[in-house]
Design a protein that fits this description.
Shape: globular
Bound molecules: 5-hydroxy-NICOTINAMIDE-ADENINE-DINUCLEOTIDE PHOSPHATE
Distance between the termini: 35 Å
Order of helices and strands: EHEHEHEHEHEHHE
Helix content: 40-55%
Radius of gyration: 17 Å
């Protein structure tokens, strides 16, 4: 897909991987709707996108786990941009605890943001892609949609779930010329680990831009091609979490 003038909604765009993906789409001439909860961070991301990447960006604050907020956010994008071509479900979090220490609320947050959130954003966006005759849905899952680790039960449950969602949904979407790709990164140097209270050596980790370049590559392939899953890892990852 040629990205020029295509409209993309990117969740988790206020930080890390989502912000880098937004910039990577914008630099190709795409119009990016930046979705996350924090308006201030989104405004800063928009500024960076416009100044450093000469891109067009729209700030659309929303909690992806809220049906009402997602509905409104998608409608705002459609009203402002005339439609939608690309959906990137990237918003996420990690709370790493042994199961007996994990609260129900912490468990629910993983499922509500990374699984329900991806479902809601896709559900309310997909009629726009169908009505335009095609498009692309990218789900940022994880290596931990295929692997396991101690203290990761909630995180892996959500990411394995999202991977299953993608695989089934792909079979419907392809009939409408919509491609579905899972991007499965290893460890990436973002604020994710600070927020998770997880001290780890990120010196060998991927950079957000590495994941963003991969997403842009996948999006730009001819429409007849779908990369169903891409595993991206540092050449020599720090494997303390594996
Ligand atoms: O994390 P971070 P990453 N509604 O913390 C947003 C996956 N991944 O970029 O709402 C809407 O910098 C939050 O914004 P805010 C990971 O699982 C990562 O590393 O304002 N948005 C922020 O923009 C996740 O799915 C690694 O707080 C919500 C963003 O999500 C994705 O990559 C490895 C939200 C998080 O940015 C991006 O993570 C891997 C909500 N309810 C997979 N809750 C890694 N970093 O190593 C959060 O395999 N956000």
């Amino acid at each position: 897909m040629e990205l020029k003038d295509k409209v993309a909604i990117v969740t988790g765009a206020s930080s890390g991987i989502g912000q880098a993906i937004s910039n990577a789409i914008a630099v190709e001439g795409g119009i990016v709707a930046l979705v996350a909860r924090s308006r201030d961070k989104l405004e800063a991301a928009k500024k960076e996108c416009e100044k450093d990447f000469k891109g067009k960006a729209l700030v659309v604050p929303a909690d992806v786990s809220s049906e009402d907020e997602v509905k409104k956010a998608v409608q705002t994008v459609v009203d402002e941009c005339g439609g939608l071509d690309i959906v990137v479900n990237n918003a996420g979090l990690g709370i790493f605890k042994e199961l007996d220490q994990m609260s129900v609320d912490e468990w629910d947050r993983h499922i509500n943001v990374m699984l329900r959130g991806a479902f809601l954003v896709t559900k309310y966006s997909i009629p726009q892609l169908y009505s335009r005759g095609g498009g692309h849905v990218v789900n940022v899952t994880s290596l931990w949609a295929a692997r396991f680790c101690r203290t990761c039960s909630a995180y892996t449950a959500a990411k394995f779930g999202l991977r299953g969602f993608s695989q089934s949904f792909r079979l419907e979407a392809r009939d409408r010329n919509v491609r579905v790709t899972d991007v499965m990164p290893g460890t990436v140097d973002t604020p994710f680990f600070t927020k998770a209270n997880w001290e780890t050596d990120l010196s060998m980790a991927l950079h957000s831009e590495d994941v963003a370049k991969t997403v842009a590559f996948v999006l730009k392939l001819p429409d007849r091609v779908v990369i169903e899953e891409v595993v991206i890892n540092s050449i020599n990852p720090f494997e303390s979490t594996a």
